[in-house]
Write a structure and sequence with these properties.
Layout lengths: L8 H7 L4 H5 L9 H4 L3 H8 L3 H13 L2
Helix pairs in contact: 4-5
């Protein structure tokens, strides 16, 4: 899977729920909420005041290693 800032969080979690800790460690504790699963990484990071590029890089490194 290739992740961008526009990728929907729910799609990422559906592909591999093992990445949930990546979201939790930056304060996104509402992963079970239907609204949060429909947000893009960029939108969610804006709400949580975190860097979307850093999260995208971490997610892509994880998926590349699989």
């Amino acid at each position: 899977m290739q992740v961008t800032k526009e990728t929907i969080i729910g799609d990422i979690l559906d592909a591999d729920f093992e990445v949930a800790p990546f979201f939790l460690e930056i304060g996104m504790h509402c992963l079970g909420c239907p609204a949060s699963r429909g947000e893009s990484i960029e939108d969610a990071c804006a709400v949580h005041g975190t860097d979307p590029d850093a999260l995208v890089e971490k997610l892509n490194a994880y998926f590349a290693s699989k």
